Amino acid sequence: MRQLFIRRRLLPLVMMLSLAAFVPAGQVVAQNVQEPAPEGSVPVDTKDPWENWNRKVYTFNETIDRWFLKPVAQAYRTFTPQIVDRGITNFFNNLTELRNFTNSVLQLKGESAVVAVGRFTYNTTFGLGGLIDVATAFDLPERPEDFGQTLGYWGAESGPYLMLPFLGPSTPRHFTGFVTDGFALPSAWDEVDSPEVYYARALQVVDKRADLIPAEAFISGDSYVFVRNAFLQRREFLINDGKVVDDPFASGEDEDLMLDDF
Length: 262
Hints:
Elements: H1 2-21, H2 25-33, H3 51-79, H4 82-95, H5 97-106, H6 110-125, H7 134-137, H8 147-153, E1 162-164, E2 168-170, H9 172-183, H10 196-212, H11 223-239
Antiparallel strand pairs: 1-2
């Protein structure tokens, strides 16, 4: 009942964000260029019109990560056996199969929906509740789908790049999908009671951050630009089901790397 009440309170926010996601990014930029920029002002990058705000939030997130989250994640990697770490990651990934199934249906992707059901069934039944990814061994690799991808499938524009406090890289479309997946659509997390759900969520965050530590070695140049390009390219890769498309953010350098965990 409490979760239903929260979802009803958030539904207007989700719908508002969904409408915002359908506004092309070009319209946002157009609003900025209708008024002449003050003399001597710094030109705005039309690919990242909120860069000034985004960089400040990025610095804030980096500070929180450096002093709190990363040390915990490093300790987690040091003291957690690799087989246990892999099992925890598999367990949380298995919980996302319900999300993958729901969004596959919303995108009319029948095969992906069947794969999501098969993966959840195999991993839950034969993989000790999802601790072992036996579905991949059965030639059923994960096909991640979220509501942000669903919006993109039905023509919603991504909107400008947006860095969110604590949540990290996003766009209006991606954030809309994040809120919808978390509060409006069915989720396996609905079956977890409090306070256990908070402990599980905290473990999931630490596990995800620990998995990203090796990827930090690939970061070069301006870390803000690198993270932005990696995130946006990864999102376009997912929305286009792996089809290569022209990326206006790509610089032709090593910043074009797509990191799976972004």
